[in-house]
């Protein structure tokens, strides 16, 4: 199974109570691809600048990630700077330099055409839609978005949502997209916009998946995967993207598409997100093993398991 | 098994997006006692004024709750007014009239002396300590507190915490009490202050229980009970107290004291809290049946159960 991931590759400067780093490899697509690479073959579509070196490429290559869809443009790679205060729940952006990302036009290499899974990272919804239309043979499309697109490009986003099977967003984005404060009601409104399933990420409280009636099998109950309380949170950057990578990666590896697979995927999403935050940037995802992943998956199950 | 509950009986005036009510029966002890009454015999210690009528008494009597420890004082019962905005997560207090509650001195009737369980509701920590010392034969003491006491009467609270076996507070209270933003680390700091276990209530995300090393059996892993996403939230007042009632009530009914009992109790806490918010005031707890409770308990289990 192969999965195409489109999104950003960036250099991040991050300050948290645990320390400070400058210009380290980041970006939504980077976290997603690294997390998903533990489960499936990942093919990236992104853009980088002249400051993207062989050492950066190696981070992807060591996880077997295909970079043939990465465009090397003149100029600098997307840069983001931000800081987290004590609570670690919200980033305060210091600066955003879009650089080569500003005129990003995703191009799908011919070699990616047989991919069965697609993840549309957090980019302009019109670009998401064009990628999805080009890869019209995929079995399942996951997608992300954010308040910036929900407010600024709502009409384009609504068109894209009709092409997305599973939307992964957080509580605030769900409420904003639905214009509804009650989360289960907001979820129903979002599902009515197109997706077969909606994954709402609750940060340290885990995530809930809501299904459209009849989608992925019978039943109408939502499902929740709690997150393990983590003592060692050094850098929350990339947690949501790593969650999406674990979620989509597990689905791509599972063979069949049904509710039980999506439920397990929700746990694997939480597992990958919880690892990502233990070190700055991609450090923990780079050093991770499949055994550690399975160990934490079991710990997550036991966290809510009654005898 | 009998349980003594000490706390407030109040008349509440509440405004939520679902409507408005005035002077309805409320108070932490009321919600706690009603919720716990589905599991065990509850004996209340509280104070009411001359405006507390037979009709109010009947709400307790119909659930078999013992009111012999309720003092009838001259003056008016404690009154609270508050409103909830769209998010329903936080109450904005309109007014607080302590009335007879201001000089409340809990007195334990002789008939309560053989009680095996005790819940110290959210009152002055020095009063909590005096009740606990008087009922020194109890097997397990649960306790609540709030930011007001954590900040204003810290020294008294620290003494009381040494007498409490299970403390039930929310995320913000835990962080404030421990002066630590990371929740698992904050939990360890709170446990070091005395309690054998700490239940952190996460509102709509459920609750987590942290155990002191060696308390209630072996192991050191926390346990989390997720809450069911509720579409019908009309009035959040009393959710936390109803949670505590379900939690403590189930423990009192279980016979033995071990981690598995406390884990199940965490689910029952969530169940009772989720029912309480479906109607204004105590309405839903009054109409509830044990069958409905068991049904939701199963739904909660399935919410996170992988095949």
In terms of quaternary structure, the protein is homodimer
CATH topology of chain A: UDP-N-acetylmuramoyl-L-alanine:D-glutamate ligase
Strand order of the largest sheet of chain A: 5-4-1-8-9-10-11-12-13
Please outline the major beta sheet of chain A.
Answer: 9 strands, mixed
Order of helices and strands of chain A: EEEHEHEEEEHEHHEHHEEEHHHH
Quick structural summary:
The structure is a homodimer of 307-residue chains. Helices cover 36% and strands 24% of the residues of chain A.
Describe the 3D structure.
2 copies of one chain form a homodimer. With 307 residues, chain A is of the alpha/beta class. Chain A has a single domain, classed as Ribokinase (UDP-N-acetylmuramoyl-L-alanine:D-glutamate ligase, 3-Layer(aba) Sandwich), CATH 3.40.1190. Helix content of chain A is 36%, strand content 24%. Chain A has a 9-stranded mixed β-sheet with strand order 5-4-1-8-9-10-11-12-13, with helices on both faces. The longest helix of chain A is centred in the C-terminal third of the chain and has 18 residues. The mean pLDDT of chain A is 95. At the A-B interface, helix 7, strand 13, helix 9 and helix 11 of A face helix 7, strand 13, helix 9 and helix 11 of B.
